[in-house]
Amino acid sequence: MADKKAIFQTVKYWVVLNVGTLALAAGVYFFKTPNHFATGGVSGLSIILEPLIPFLSQSEILMIINALMLVLGFIFLGRGCTFKTIYCSAVYSLENFMFERLVPLSGPLTDQTFLELTFAILLTGVGSAIIFNCGASSGGTDIVALILKKYTSLNVGRALLITDVLIAASSFFVFDIQAGLFSMLGLFAKAFLIDGVIEDIGKSKYVTIITDKIDMVGDYIIKDMHRDYTAYMAQGGYTGNDKHVLITVCSRPEARRLRVKVKELDPAAFTIVTDATEILGKGFRDPG
């Protein structure tokens, strides 16, 4: 049973990771590139360089830059450049290249530029957030960030933001004012979206249960939910009676089921359910 669950979790992890990578590649190819939305990062840099290097397509430039970044990662980071980063970077670049070969575009999909910007932000933002939540990255500027963090005292977040702003601002000169304005708007909108999606995806529930039926509630948590809990004794301030307090963390669906079950097992129980934005450890996100 445990082996089947482990296999299911592994398959689920890689399916989710590939969905995130596909969303990122689709957002770049179908919406960012044809509209010249250079919203920072390696994809933005490749969009800026495409008209300056006419013998290479955007996807080819993207593949070359990502490959160079991975080489730098191996040189400067060693094991810090993880297999997940290598995998996502390679798949992301390959998917972009395949889109270009299988679904050639002569221009934007629609004449609604703001609509296209919306989808560019949604797909790339959600895709990046999913990848990050899986403990991976799409390579590119993330590798630069890790190198800067390791070898300099620079504020990495600020340095990358300045780089992204410079890339987005370049579209004013390489393309036109409209492309530049949309690129700047997309850059900041994507930053807020990614933070919001990462926080929402990673959100779990922290459940505190005050009960006299510790054995029954504890058995349900362990045997049915396959979670663990921490228990300790507490004393009621008003009654002075001793009470058992159980603490556990779980997903949102599990928290809903647990709340109902606790009410069924001990109608007098007191249950507190709060949001836990980030849980690191076995059964949740890998702290590495």
Describe this structure in words.
Helix 3 runs antiparallel to helix 4 (83-102), helix 3 runs parallel beside helix 6 and helix 5 packs parallel to helix 8 (177-201). Helix content is 64%, strand content 10%. By secondary structure, it is an alpha+beta fold. The protein has helices at 2-35, 41-49, 58-77, 83-102, 113-133, 141-151, 156-174, 177-201, 214-224, 252-265, and strands spanning 204-211, 230-235, 242-250, 270-276.
- Count of domains: 2
Q: Supply Rg.
A: 24 Å
SSE string, helices as H and strands as E:
HHHHHHHHEHEEHE
What percent of residues adopt helix (DSSP H or I)?
Answer: 55-70%
Distance between the termini: 27 Å
Estimate the mean pLDDT confidence. Answer: 82
User: How much of the residues is beta strand, in percent?
Assistant: 5-15%
Strand order within the widest sheet?
2-3-1-4
**Which structural category do the helix and sheet elements fall into?**
alpha+beta
Give the overall shape, derived from the CA principal axes.
elongated
